[in-house]
Design a protein that fits this description.
About 20% of the residues lie in helices and about 40% in strands. By secondary structure, the chain is of the alpha+beta class.
């Protein structure tokens, strides 16, 4: 089954959770009793029922009517597809959750309140989505019912969105006028917004371009398990396909090996391809471990221990190198920041070059040089871009998130 990861972002009260909840309802994706339970909970709290209640898992979220952490829900899409909606916080204090939730998305839906238009925090979200190079960004102008489904309001927001996108060099695929509360333009085109000639949201999400089947083979090793007297490497194929007998290269070390067999829950198979999760067995299993990447032997990609990147700080930074741990998909090694080349103001989206001031406040962005104590594999295109995004942590705290320049 092909999974499409969709992160839903936007300002507080823009209606993100309502949008996802309504889509789950319209597509029959709710578990039995979920709707009734949410309606009952809203009754206890003396609130009118909102589709957002379907997502708010914690009691304090329902009382405050805000999403406090990153929530993932599965949506039936049919035709061998499913959509994973990633609902992330809109308020500034939890921007780190928004960033981590966006770091593995295929598509981003940027929700804008039609009544209040584009706020600074929404612009900051758009900047980060482009910063992380989420491949597709779709803007949704929600709460059109609050402005009488006005075409002039829509036209003005489209102008503002285009101006913002040009400023950060982002490509916003579409701006869709919707009313998540009433279901307009979510699954099918709305008669109340008949002046809009584009496709509804769900149709655009299902139009996710599947290009990774045709890309080079890329397998991320998640764990090594015993298999009788032998061992096997379990993981996920992020792109391409492979057959037993293929010569492969293990990254970031660059060691060559040969694939001997492919195991699945149904037994051995003669080929495995994206997006399956098989277990692979190689001629030499002695140096295989979690965090490695397997590509075909003629692949030119290699590991590195020094690279330039764009990062957004999640905490104040004093200019010290510091000892961080960098996580790039399935890889985690020690790392430090060794040079600062410039900064972005994520409020006005302006970039400035080097300066004497090497201190950064939380939510500021910078162009930096990062060095790792052991080689790590990074690439902007391999595995659908999964190896271009990373997180810098100290202990359990996220200090920065970034993207390979």
């Amino acid at each position: 089954m092909h999974t499409i990861n969709v992160v839903v972002t936007g300002d507080v009260d823009s209606g993100k959770s309502t949008l996802i909840g309504r889509l789950l309802f319209e597509t029959g994706s709710l578990k039995q009793g979920t709707l009734e339970s949410a309606q009952k909970e809203c009754g206890f709290s003396e609130k009118d029922f909102e589709f957002a209640c379907l997502l708010d898992s914690f009691e304090e979220e329902r009382r405050d009517q805000m999403t406090l952490d990153t929530t993932e829900v599965f949506c039936n899409a049919g035709k061998g597809k499913r959509i994973v909606f990633i609902d992330v916080p809109g308020h500034r204090e939890l921007l780190g959750n928004m960033v981590s939730g966006s770091s593995y998305a295929d598509i981003a839906v940027l929700v804008i309140d039609a009544f209040t238009s584009l706020k600074e925090q929404t612009q900051r979200h758009a900047f980060i989505l482009e910063f992380l190079r989420v491949r597709r960004i779709i803007a949704v102008l929600n709460k059109m019912d609050t402005v009488g489904f006005s075409e002039p309001v829509y036209t003005e927001v489209v102008r503002i969105v285009k101006e913002m996108a040009d400023k950060i060099d982002a490509r916003v695929e579409a701006v869709i006028p919707v009313s998540a509360k009433h279901g307009d333009n979510l699954i099918k085109r709305s008669s109340r917004i008949n002046w809009y000639k584009g496709r509804p949201l769900f149709s655009l999400l299902l139009g996710e371009r599947q290009t990774r089947e045709d890309q080079g083979f890329c397998f991320a090793v998640q764990e090594i398990y015993p298999f009788g007297e032998e061992k096997m490497a379990a993981g996920i194929i992020l792109s391409g396909a492979v057959r037993p007998g293929a010569g492969v290269k293990i990254l970031p070390e660059g060691c060559l090996n040969t694939l001997t067999s492919i195991q699945t829950m149904d037994g051995p198979v003669r080929q495995a391809c994206f997006p399956s999760c098989p277990a692979l067995m190689f001629k030499d299993m002695s140096f295989l471990k979690r965090g490695q990447i397997v590509v075909l032997e003629d692949c030119s990609l290699n590991g590195t221990s020094e690279f330039q990147a764009k990062i957004v700080f999640m905490r104040d930074y004093s200019g010290a190198q510091d000892d961080y741990r960098i996580t790039v998909f399935n890889q985690t090694v020690k790392a430090g920041i060794y040079a600062l080349y410039g900064r972005w103001d994520t409020g006005n989206l302006e970039f400035s070059g080097r300066s004497e001031n090497n201190s950064f406040s939380a939510y500021e962005a910078a162009e930096v040089l990062i060095k790792t104590d052991t080689p790590i594999f990074l690439d902007r295109s391999a595995g659908g871009g999964r190896f271009a995004r990373f997180i810098l942590k100290k202990g359990e705290d996220i200090y920065a998130v970034g993207m390979l320049s």
